Amino acid sequence: MFSAHAGPLVRVAVLLTGDEGLAEEVVQDAFMGLHRRWQRQGPPDSPPAYLRTSVVNGCRSALRRRRLASAAGIEHRIQENSAEAVVLLQEEHAAVFTAMRDLSRRQREVLVLRFYLDLEDPEIAVTLGVSRSTVSSTISRALAALGARLEGVQ
Question: Which residues form the RNA polymerase sigma factor 70 region 4 type domain (predicted)?
């Protein structure tokens, strides 16, 4: 299961956090949580869905901790020379990546889950713990906002 799902989950976490090292930690924690849950209660109905939800929640928590650290004056440096960061910051992706950062957290999450993991609305709803209609409206608003930001860049 780790071989099949870790790579894509790390890439999702990088897109949500902007930090490869932090993303790897979040994914590792998600797999550890799945392992603990599996031992205590047996396998969840859908282990991949359990992992996706754990990774999204882990990213939220990590970003919350980063904001608190920033407010306390503790600096956080993002690895700028990591392989993922280099790929994401290439010229043709930089504008999209920057525009994505300006979206709300939920908008970023639904776009990453839809267009990176190719999840359908019901799967995204389960992952984020929201209704299917919330997913649909959030994707619509996120795409409109992203389009408007990218038009202003060009």
Answer: 96-146
